[in-house]
TrEMBL record:
Biased composition (Polar residues): 222-234
Top-level taxon of origin: Eukaryota
Region (Disordered): 163-273
Protein name per the record: Uncharacterized protein
């Protein structure tokens, strides 16, 4: 590939649909070692194909005197933007045979880019269409031969084991931890079932009729009394209070240490005597 055409690699493998009047065109852009190639097909029952290309000489004629790599690469990126945004058209369109038409990028820009198109023969058109379909089929192999890429992504679901029974028998035999856990669970289930059947076969006895309970009643009372005695609060010792001194006979009420005064009645003699 020439140095000038290497700046147009961004135009490789592009496609777009053009609606122009009642006509619908499909455009395919590709870059080879010696040219930038454009194919245009007319959709419908009157399907036809045109092709055009730019060689290194065409690049020089269109971009001189600015032929630096930076300038050419910038111009190629602008052409890609026109292609993606649909800013393209078929200029000088005519349905007449051998009519000279052009594929135009940026028709409203100050300097549009034109690629002259020449109609292909039926054999050439069929060969090119077959080549395009072959490329599509090869790319579809990476998506399980689907013609169109799926928009849905189905994540792989990991298997969920609900219990030990979901594990294969051989795998459980190889794992000692799984086997021990399974046996313990099975033994616990059997013991629980037998105990349940044993108790279900007979009616429960009254508590008062059980001899063990009767024999244990004295011990229970003794234990209760000991617990009560331990938990009981010991009364605090009281200090002896001195007894009140008994009042001596004949002592004074006001002062018990003194004897009470005695009053004798005064007798008066009669006037008659």
């Amino acid at each position: 590939m020439s140095d000038l055409l290497s700046n147009f690699n961004c135009l490789d493998e592009l496609t777009q649909v053009i609606y122009q009047g009642i006509c619908k065109f499909v455009v395919v852009s590709a870059v080879s070692d010696d040219a930038w190639n454009v194919h245009v097909g007319l959709s419908g029952q009157q399907g036809r194909w045109w092709r055009g290309s730019w060689t290194e000489e065409d690049v020089r004629l269109h971009f001189e005197p600015e032929l630096s790599d930076d300038h050419l690469e910038s111009c190629a990126e602008k052409l890609v933007e026109c292609f993606i945004q649909g800013n393209v058209c078929i200029s000088d369109w005519s349905a007449e045979k051998d009519a000279v038409i052009k594929f135009t990028l940026g028709p409203t820009s100050a300097k549009p880019t034109h690629v002259p198109l020449t109609e292909m023969s039926a054999v050439e058109a069929a060969a090119y269409a077959t080549q395009v379909l072959t490329d599509i089929a090869l790319q579809a192999q990476s998506r399980k031969c689907r013609l169109y890429p799926s928009t849905l992504d189905y994540p792989a679901e990991a298997p969920v084991l609900k219990s030990d029974q979901s594990i294969p028998l051989k795998q459980r035999e190889k794992s000692p931890d799984t086997t021990a856990a399974f046996k313990t669970k099975e033994r616990s289930t059997n013991e629980s079932g037998s105990s349940h059947r044993m108790h279900a076969g007979r009616a429960p006895k009254p508590l008062a009729s059980m001899p063990a309970l009767k024999a244990g009643q004295p011990d229970l009372k003794a234990s209760t009394s000991r617990s009560t005695s331990k938990n009981s609060v010991t009364p605090l010792p009281h200090k002896p209070v001195a007894a009140l001194a008994r009042r001596a006979k004949g002592a004074s009420l006001a002062n018990p240490n003194k004897r009470a005064r005695k009053y004798q009645a005064i007798e008066f003699e009669s006037d008659a005597e």
